[in-house]
Amino acid sequence: MDVAAKVTSKGQITIPKEIRDALGITEGDQIVFRVEQHRAVLAKIPNLLDLAGAVEVPAAKRGVAWGEVRRSTRQIRAETRR
User: Fold this and answer.
1) Is 0.70 topped by the overall pTM?
2) What does the domain layout of the chain look like in residue ranges?
3) What pLDDT, in 10s, does the model give residues 33-74?
4) To 5 degrees, how large is the angle CA 44–CA 50–CA 53?
């Protein structure tokens, strides 16, 4: 889908409705812009809270402090690189 938008004197654009609808962009959403060669690509940044429950966590791992998860993961990665 190709849709044009005009740049204002302040360097702003309005994301056309067709694009907002296609990407599910609504007020307050965050967008990331990336330059790939001579093109700019934009994408909606997902809200990580929307991913809650997407990955099953084994009962034994629930409630583990985040620092412990990171330490354990680093240790496992270091052991597998040997």
Assistant:
1) no
2) 56-80
3) 999 999 999 999 888 887 777 888 888 778 889 899 889 889
4) 145
The DSSP output letter for 53 is T
Residue 41 near residue 34, CB atoms below 8 Å: yes
41 is written with which tokens?
């690509």
Q: Which residue has the tokens 């302040």?
A: 10
* CA-based max dimension of the chain: 57
Give φ, ψ of 17 to 5 degrees: -55, -40
C-alpha pair distances (Å), 40 with each of 8, 32, 78? 17, 10, 37
Residue owning tokens 């938008």: 5
Decide if 44 contacts 24 (C-beta within 8 A).
yes
The residues that bridge with 43 in the sheet, in sequence order, are: 32
Q: Which of 15, 37, 41 is nearest to 26 (CA)?
A: 15
